[in-house]
Amino acid sequence: MKISLSLLGDYIDWIEKDPQVIAQQVTAHTAEVDAIIQQGALLEHCCVGQVITISKHPDADKLVLCDVKTDKGKVRVVCGGTNLREGMCVAFAHVGATVRWHGEEMMTLEKVKIRGEESAGMICAAEELDLVAQFPEAVGHTIIDLGDDDSGVGRSLKEHLGLDDAVLDIDNHAITHRPDLFSHVGFARECVAMGIAKWKEEPKFELPSFGSSPLPLKLKNDAGKLIPRYLACTLSIDDVGETPDWMKSRLEAVGSRSLNLPVDITNYVMFELGMPLHSFDLDDLKGDISMRTAKKGEKIVTLDEAERVLPEGAIVISDGKGIFDLLGIMGGLRSSTKPTSRNLLLHSAVVDPVAIRNTIIATGHRTDAATIYEKGIPPVIAAWGFARALQLFLDHVPGAKITSKLETWGDDGNPTDVTVSLKHIHSLLGSDIPSKEITSALKNLGFSVESKKDKLSVKPPLWRIGDITGAHDVIEEVGRIYGYDKIDPQMPTAEVALPERDQRISKMRDAFKEQRFYEVLPLSLVGPSLLSRAAIEASGCAELTNPFGEELSLFQPSVLPGLLEHAEDTIRNAPAVLRTFTMTHVHSGGKEFMELGLLVASREETDLKSDPFLCAKADLVHALTKAGYSMSIQPAAQAPAHAHPGRCADIIIAGKTIGQLFEINPQVRAAFGLPQRASAALINIEALLAIESTETLAEPVSGFPPVVYDETIAMAHDKSVAKLLSAAREKSSLLESVEVADLFGKAEDKEYNLTLRFTYRSSERTLTEQEAKVEHEQVLGVVTR
After folding, report:
1. Is residue 244 assigned to a domain?
2. Do the beta carbons of residue 291 and residue 227 sit within 8 Å?
């Protein structure tokens, strides 16, 4: 977006005149200035010259010799212009001027000889002085033609063309919520508020008197709330007239070219006030007019002569012959204002920004008007723009008269008061800004401010009705106008301490990895089919309202399905025994909690010693011990459907059940293609961490040697080894430890062989073999009973 400092000068007197400083202030307070464009940058050492004589070059058919009258007297140059004539005024560049040679490479002119003839300067085409926007026809071998009026000969070319403006190129990404700043009046107000300018006279735009005659056609708003504010009337003109030079130069400064006076007026008002308007040739409209939304596939030929297919919902205007305007984007070619137009319909409309945005995306067509419309134009701007356009029509278009009454609907809105305390302002900005400066900053921006003890009642102006919604918005205005550079930067004073870390989970994770487990991270979203294969009901699961697909439609009620699915994919390439675990959140029973799951699956047939159930139990005991817990198991009262009905146990810690250890039900195992036995454990981590862990204490090793015996005994599967070991420990005070050393047999056999290792030791003396045997016989009597 381009802002002309010359156009701003219509409304404000500059206190700060340096464009560089103005750009710095605008960047600091309002929006980033990407560049400062100095008009006529290549016009130094250039003047209006007049061709006095033209003669043929003696050694070049396409070149001529010219004597040119300049501000430095008569100068002879060699020129290749095809439109030269004696008496014409041209753009002349003296030696020392910098030009763009043939519109490309920059070069500084010197006195040279061209085909043996001396040339001291250059008669320029538009592309050589960056003046293509002003003289689009003067390119290539066609030089700039300034006419035959010699009154300006010798005058500075920059002054003659009025190219003394400085233009700020604004990055509008930071002001997309500020439709009032898509205008020169909006930036004039900002410059006054930041103290680099003062109002010549604060702008007021009042509607003129209208006639009593109704419009010659009916206007129907079939779009409803999509057009909340609207103004229109008809005008008659004697001729489209000629656009004043000052308007042309300002349009060119902001990147718009002059077309014809009525169109130029509407474009000028758009850049001046941020209100896109449109004038239609009234004689081209047939029947009543309807403002409505387009049906999918309808078409329009727009002003750029392109036929566009409209999306459903685009806001259009149509008459008896069809659609003639794509409202908020671009007018139609059929109803455009032409040199022959004598009766006009001028309108100003506020259009729903979402509808405009959707149309831009659907058509891929963006215009200056659409860019402003999609920001959400405040209703009051529609009335201002309409009033300003009518003023310019009546002042500059030959014979312009208003020929109808005002057709209008909607109002300018009613801003809501915002109450904000001075304490809140000081706290949020980190600076005790004086209340007078706060009030002054807000009033300069157009806010109404009333002081109520230590609070301010602030009413935003009508042009800020869309973006000022609460105290935070008001405080932002105060901060940026006061100047963030005036607020001393301070480091946070709050203490930053690392939170205490619970190492229990880390210890368990490390313990599993020590036992050759792989940690897997399956998705936390599952589908009904996966749960069905895992024998888990999907009816009570938490559902996603907008899932990617049925297979990802539920939050996992357990980590088991994910572990089984991973095992299904990897078991063929796994070692003889696949060990995996995961810790993640699940949703079950209406609650969310973290669950630990581990799976031990064998790829080959196993004996009792390598049975997955016993391996899973041993690995779980090891991990829980590392975390400071002593685990025991007891037969589960009822096995879930995914567990083997005869091999399922509750995991007990400190008398509380915190999970289950089980062999996978053979039917579930078959559903996932697991060839041999597989076992799993599921633990509620939150229930586990609620139990206080105990520290593992190290005891000194006795200096006296032990006496060790290994005994193998026959055991039935229904007999508890834990009770057997407990009874053995109670029988002898010299029994330091008794533990399982080995297992022999198969899980399906009625009995198996159990090898126990008994260690006897005294802390006071060395035991004799005879003493140890006596103790061992007593213990063995309990074990074999």
Report:
1. yes
2. yes
Q: For residue 460, name the pLDDT band (cuts at 50, 70, 90).
A: very high
Cα 553 from chain centre: 27
Q: What are phi and psi of 38, to 5 degrees?
A: -95, 115
Class of residue 722 by CB neighbours under 10 A (exposed 0-12, middle 13-18, buried 19+): exposed
The Cα 258–Cα 256 span in angstroms is 7
* HSE-CB for 456 with a 13 A CA cutoff: 28
> pLDDT digits over 560-596, tens only?
999 999 999 999 888 889 999 999 999 988 899 999 9
Q: 3-state DSSP call for residue 50?
A: strand
The pLDDT value given to residue 302: 93
Do 450 and 535 belong together in one domain?
A: no
Compute the distance between CA of residue 622 and CA of residue 625 in angstroms, rounded to an integer: 5
Residue 774's domain comprises: 707-783
Q: pLDDT tens for residues 310-359?
A: 999 999 999 999 999 999 999 999 999 999 999 999 999 999 999 999 99
In a domain, 209, yes or no: no
Contacts of 128 (CB under 8 A, 6+ apart): 42, 93, 99, 100, 101, 102, 103, 122
Residues 597 and 508 sit within 8 Å (Cβ to Cβ) = no
Q: Which of 458, 486, 514 is the last residue of a domain?
A: 486
CB 533 within 8 A of CB 572: no
378 lies in the same domain as 400: yes
Average pLDDT for 530-542: 91
**Same domain (yes/no): 227, 332:** yes
Per-residue DSSP letter, 71:
B
> Does residue 207 lie in a domain region?
no
Q: What is the pLDDT of residues 684-708, one digit of tens each?
A: 999 999 999 988 777 777 889 999 9
C-alpha span between 371 and 385 (Å, rounded): 17
